[in-house]
Each structure stands twice: as structure tokens, then as C-alpha cells.
Amino acid sequence: MRRVPKPNFSTEEVLLKCISNYTDTDLVRRFKASKGNIADWSNILQKKIETNTVSTIVEDKCIPPKITKNEMVKLYTDKLAKQGQPGREIYNDIMDLPKHRLCPICGYRPVDSLDHYLPKEKFPALSISPINLIPACMGCNKLKSSSKPNSPEEEFIHPYFDNIEDEPWLYLKVVEELPLTVYFIAEPSQSSWDDLKKIRVIKHFSRFRLGQLYSSYASNELSGKIYSLKSSFEQGGAALVRDELLKQIESFKYAEVNSWQIALYTGLYESQWFCEEALKKPIDKILK
């Protein structure tokens, strides 16, 4: 879950770009007449995001007066998202916003599409709003689907507006039995955030199954690292193991506060059982 700079496009700019090759003059006229209303909805969304009141937006009202729901949705699918159409350049630019083009929702899988923060089928006036378009991987896009928040607590973390990288909240727990099992938790209770933000982070972590994703990455990481840790234990005991784990923590700490790698190596470092007991066993007993 990473922060991303907001798109540098106005809603009006996106609209005019998308309708630039329509041949239906009546449709173009109606879109231009609705330009102000569509821009207003984008401004409303931003204010709602900033005040954690997105859940109060009424679906039935989020439709421009001169444009049908289907016309708004098709504007996105046919003119913004579709390859070779005038809006596709903007679509690609938004997908390029995240650092290393990694999905800001999970933080690790590559971006391959744009997801609507509020679904276009339910909020058609926001179909092409830049702040409603979030770069995402296919996995996160599918998990979110067309869901919408029904309360402030259910509002997804928005990468353009919510900063959850300023304090640690991702931790690893070690199950003290073999074969080695670890799992990740979202635990922002020690942060200075308000209670609503803490709840939203926990729900976001659960909704997008980030614990399962990070555990999969961690298991793969450990399968390659356990030999080195076992060797360190045999040479210098738990003290040398902790030295090696600390080096791993140091190597990742400048990249991201809440990376699964930092959580993994910190959790292992803080586990007395792992450092002093688990590594006594043969490798085929330690790992699954």
C-alpha cells in the first residue's frame, strides 16, 4: 500500500480528449454541455475523500443530466481505456505514476490496468475522473471488483490522498513450531493516526488479502535464505544469526517503512525461538 502522486490532468482535459474523435455531433454537444457537471462530481469526490465521507455519495444522483449512464461508461471503455483511442495516452500516463510501476494497493505486483476507486457502473459521472482512476494489478482489481464503501470504515486507502508510509503498521508473527510458519498482520495500534485511519488500514489489508500475498513472498524468500541463516547459527550461534538478520533489515529500511521484507526479518530477529531453537534442527525439518 504505497502513496502515488495525483494525476496531472483535469477532468475537463480528459473529457475533451476522449470526445475528440466522436463523429456523433449530438453526443459531442451533450458531453460539452455536461462538462461542468462532470468536473463538479470530480471535485465532490475529492472533498469526500479528504473528509472520509465517500460513503455518503448517492449512486442515483451521480449521473450528468444530459448524458446516459451507458454513454459515460462507454466514454471510458471506448475512448480512454481502449488502445488506439485519443484518451489512451492519458490512461498510460496514469498507469506510469507508481514508482517502478508497482501496484499501490498491494505494493508489489506490476500495474496492468486502471481501477475505479468508485465503480463506474454505480457512479458514471466519475468514469473518467483522474482521481477516481487508480493504477492496479489484476489481482487487486479483481478483489475490489465493483464494491463501494457503505461507511467511513470501509473506505479503501486512496494512494493519491492517504499516507500510510509515515509510521510502521506491518508486522510478522512467528509460529513456534516446525516446520516454520510465519504470517503477517496489520497492527497500527501504536501509530499516532486517528482510530478511523487505523481501522481503514486493517480492513484494506484484509480486503486485498495482503497477508496471504506477503506470506507467499516470505516463504519463497526463506527457502533461499535459510541455508545462510543455518550456516551462521552453526558458526556463531544466535548472536551471528541476529547480526545477519539485522543486516537484512538495514538493507531494506531505506526503501519502504512497511515492506514485507522489513517485517519478515524484524519478526525473525525478535523471535528468540527462531534464533535460538529452530535453527538447531535440520533444514528439511525447518521448512515445509
Strand order of the largest sheet: 1-2
- The domain count comes to 2
Structural class: mainly alpha
The residue fraction in helices comes out at 40-55%
- What's the helix-strand series? HHHHHEEHEEHHHHH
What Rg, in angstroms, do the CA atoms define?
A: 23 Å
Total strand count, please?
4
End-to-end span in angstroms?
A: 29 Å
What percent of residues are in strands?
Answer: 5-15%
Overall mean pLDDT score? 94
Contiguous low-pLDDT stretches (5 residues minimum) are none
What is the overall number of helices?
11
Biggest beta-sheet profile? 2 strands, antiparallel
**So what's the overall shape?**
elongated
Please explain how this structure is put together.
The chain has 288 residues and is mainly alpha-helical. The protein has two domains: 11-153, no CATH class; 170-286, no CATH class. It is built from eleven helices and four strands. The strands form two sheets. A two-stranded antiparallel ribbon has the order 1-2. Strands 3-4 form a two-stranded antiparallel sheet. Helix 8 (210-252) crosses helix 9. It starts with 10 loop residues before the first helix and ends with a helix. 32% of the residues are buried. The model has no long low-confidence stretch (mean pLDDT 94).
